[in-house]
Amino acid sequence: MLSDQTEFIVSLVVLLGTSLLAGEIALRLGQAALVGQLLAGILLGPYLLGPFYGLTVATGVSASLTAVQFLATFFLLFLAGMEMGPDDIYGMKLGTFLTGLAVFLVPFGATLVVGFFVLPGTSLLLLLFVAATLSVTALPILAVMLGEFGLVGRPLGRLAMTVALVNELAAVTVFALLLQVYKAGGHPTGPSLAIAIGSITLFLAVVLIAHQVLAILQSRAGWNAFTLKVGTTLRSRQAGFAILMVLAMGAALFSQALGLTFLIGAFYAGILVTPASVGEASYKSVRSILAVVCWGFFIPLFLAITGLQVDLTVFLSIAGLSTLLALFAVAALAKVGAGASATLVQGWSAPDALAFGFMVNSRGAVGIAMAVILLGAGVFSSQLFTVVVAVGIATTILAPLGAVLSWRLTRRSREEMLLRMPQLARRPGASAPLAGPLIDEP
Q: How many angstroms separate the most distant Cα atoms in the chain?
């Protein structure tokens, strides 16, 4: 009989090892590691391999694993916030901003409408939560795809990242608004909306003031000398990183106190951490430490633990499968359609526009983090949580496949694709889609 501590450590070893292996397999199949890591948790859960061994991962998520998942969610949202900065928002073109809003609002509205029919009897607030979690573009996964597709630094790649930035910003803010309404009574009445909007306004005002204060301090000649002196005075190893984490957790506690959940505090705290606010050297150090800790430990564990919470019995019924297919169809079609239409209007070619639509169709850890928070708060049932996570996996799988097929539409776009990423044709199973055009250009 294993002690609780030993069983916890063994569970972490099993989950982390299996998650990393599954992520590697997914990457070699041309998919995001997220897909494999989620499937690893499902594989180890109580509906597949779980009954064949006696660890806590076989019967569900223990309190210790829930604590790990909570901490991982904090770091995940903080790291997601660091992907953008205030200057990225202030310097954005109006057309790009509107495209980002469209890529969020169109699937949000479409999912809400379809939800009325496929989830009968569900409250409006719960449908709004479902629509929010299924409308987020995965910024980290999109960044990986842009690298794979040779689009980093190119105009289409920059547009995709900026649009995803707006999308994620809008999704997190709407999610916080809905949570505030839920905690105020669960009904989007006038007073509850006023309280929610007031709380978010207060929090964003504090964030904006903090950004302005940091900008003013950075413009002063003595600020860099002061921060350097403080850094050399502190004798604890990585004391600067620890101070930054204390401030980030303070922001999370502040947002929690306002009823906005720690998610929005962690996310916006990450936005404030820029080379200009903490210094170039400190920023690189913090970013490097977080990347190693998150991608090497917390995110694989977060996704594997999330997979453990998936209830596969949902898909044994026709109703469960129908709900999954309907939500997947509307989430994918609305996202791809909004992205492709917006880029076509801006003058991009049909293959690039359609590929753009598929790329922003990828979901990711932020949307899943929202679903995990809703499951823990009792907003989502196990069945609804499972459907939302399954839609996220399916749309993420579809994203790179659809983008590659889009660039096959014409000879010119296919040739440009192969120039950007000649490695694609050498991958097992990836060269077949490149054989022969669908539409030839003269």
A: 72
Nearest to 353 by CA among 432, 429, 422, 406: 406
Measure Cα distances from 90 to 77, 95, 420, 421 in Å.
21, 13, 31, 33
pLDDT tens string 327-379 = 999 999 999 999 999 999 988 999 999 999 999 998 877 788 888 889 888 89
How far from 191 is each of 19, 186, 203, CA to CA, in Å? 45, 12, 18
Residue in 218, 364, 199, 216 with CA at minimum distance from that of residue 265: 199
**Cα(201)–Cα(196) distance, rounded to whole angstroms?**
9
Please state the separation of Cα 286 from the chain's center in Å.
20
Residue pair 379/133 in contact by the 8 Å Cβ criterion: no
The sign one gets for the Cα dihedral 93, 197, 176, 203 is positive
Quick one: which of 376, 354, 364 has its CA closest to 83? 364
CA distance 13 to 19: 10
- DSSP structure string for 228-283: HHHHHH--STTHHHHHHHHHHHHHHHHHHHTTSHHHHHHHHHHHH--HHHH-HHHH
Query: Does position 58 have pLDDT exceeding 70, yes or no?
Result: no
- Read off the tokens for 87: 């200057």
Task: Measure the CA–CA gap between 303 and 19, rounded to whole angstroms.
Answer: 8
* Tens of pLDDT, residues 142-181: 877 777 788 877 888 888 888 888 888 888 888 888 887 8
Which CATH number among 3.40.710.10, 3.20.20.30, 1.20.1530.20, 3.20.20.70 corresponds to the domain 5-406? Answer: 1.20.1530.20
Q: pLDDT tens across 192-243, in order?
A: 677 777 877 887 788 778 777 777 776 776 766 666 666 666 656 666 677 7
What CA–CA distance (Å, rounded) separates 401 from 403?
Answer: 6
Euclidean distance between the first and the last CA atom of the chain, given in angstroms as a whole number = 72
